[in-house]
Specification:
It is built from four helices and ten strands, in the order H-E-E-E-E-E-E-E-E-E-E-H-H-H. The longest helix has 19 residues, at about 1-20. It has helices at about 1-20, 185-190, 195-205, 210-215, and strands spanning about 75-80, 95-100, 105-110, 115-120, 125-130, 140-145, 150, 155-160, 170-175, 180-185. The radius of gyration is 22 Å and the shape is globular. The protein is α+β, with helices and mostly antiparallel strands and about 220 residues long. Helix 3 packs across helix 4 (about 210-215). Helix content is about 20%, strand content about 25%. Strand 5 and strand 6 form a beta hairpin. The strands form two sheets. Strands 1-2-9-4-7 form a five-stranded antiparallel sheet, with no helix packed on it. A five-stranded antiparallel sheet has the order 6-5-8-3-10. It binds glyoxylic acid and manganese (II) ion (MN).
C-alpha cells in the first residue's frame, strides 16, 4: 500500500515537472528559422558545450579593457556577452563596460532579450528610460553618481548622458547571455535597405526632405 502511494506521488511529481517546463523558452537570438537538414543549421544559441573534463579556470575569467571614446557619440560599450565570454553559455547573464568622454552619450537603445542593471563606477550620468504605450510612454529619469544603481526594465528604450566634465565609467549587467541591442536612430534612419520615406515621413509627421537628411547621416554604432 505504502509502495503504491509512493509510486503515485513520484508519477504526480513527474507530471507536474513536465507541465512546469511545457512553455516556449525565451529566444536566445534575433531569429531562428527552422531547417530540416542539420548541415544547413547551427545550434539554437549557436554554441556547443565544451567537454566538462577540458574546462578550466580560464574559461570563467575575463578582463574588460577600457573603451575608446574618441567617436561622434563620446561613448563606447564593451560588450561581454556569450560571444566574447563563452563561459557564460546557458547561464542567462552577461555584462558590459561603458566608457563615457565628458558629455558623452550612450544613445537611446533597447535590449530585445534583457533587463539591464547599471552601476556607476565613476562620474555623473543622467539616465532614463521610456515606458511602453500602455504606460503612456512615461519617462523615468535620474542623475546618478559613483556607486548608484539604476534599472532599465526588459526591452525599454533607455540612454545615459555623462553630464560631468570628467570621464565616466559604468558597469551594465544583463539578464541574458545575449541581450542584443537595437540603437533607435540607427535602426530607424540607418536600416539597410532604408525604410521607405513615405513610412517615416508619416510616422514622424515631418516632410520627406527631413527624412532624406536623416537617412543620409552616418549613424555611428558604439557597441
Ligand atoms: C547601457 O545601457 C548598455 O547597454 O551598455
Ligand atoms: Mn543598455
Amino acid at each position: 500500500m505504502k509502495g503504491s502511494v509512493f509510486i503515485s506521488l513520484v508519477a504526480l511529481l513527474a507530471l507536474a515537472s513536465s507541465l512546469a517546463s511545457a512553455y516556449d523558452p525565451s529566444p536566445l537570438q534575433d531569429f531562428c528559422v527552422g531547417v530540416n537538414d542539420t548541415k544547413l543549421g547551427v545550434f539554437v544559441n549557436g554554441k556547443f558545450c565544451k567537454d566538462p573534463n577540458l574546462v578550466e579556470a580560464e574559461d570563467f575569467f575575463f578582463h574588460i579593457m577600457e573603451g575608446n571614446t574618441s567617436n561622434p557619440l563620446g561613448s563606447k560599450v564593451t560588450q561581454v556577452s556569450v560571444n566574447e565570454f563563452p563561459g557564460l553559455n546557458t547561464l542567462g547573464i552577461s555584462l558590459a563596460r561603458v566608457d563615457y568622454a565628458p558629455y558623452g552619450l550612450n544613445p537611446p537603445h533597447t535590449h530585445p532579450r534583457a533587463t539591464e542593471v547599471l552601476t556607476v563606477l565613476d562620474g555623473t550620468l543622467m539616465v532614463g528610460f521610456v515606458a511602453s504605450d500602455q504606460n503612456d510612454n512615461r519617462f523615468f529619469t535620474k542623475v546618478l553618481n559613483k556607486g548608484d544603481v539604476f534599472i532599465f526594465p526588459f526591452s525599454m528604450i533607455h540612454f545615459q548622458l555623462n553630464v560631468g566634465p570628467e570621464n565616466a565609467v559604468a558597469l551594465a549587467s544583463f539578464s541574458s547571455q545575449n541581450p542584443g541591442v537595437i540603437t533607435i536612430a540607427n535602426a530607424v534612419f540607418g536600416s539597410k535597405p532604408p525604410i521607405p520615406s513615405d513610412v517615416l515621413s508619416k510616422a514622424f509627421q515631418v516632410g520627406k526632405d527631413i527624412i532624406a537628411y536623416l537617412q543620409k547621416q552616418q549613424w555611428y554604432d558604439n557597441n
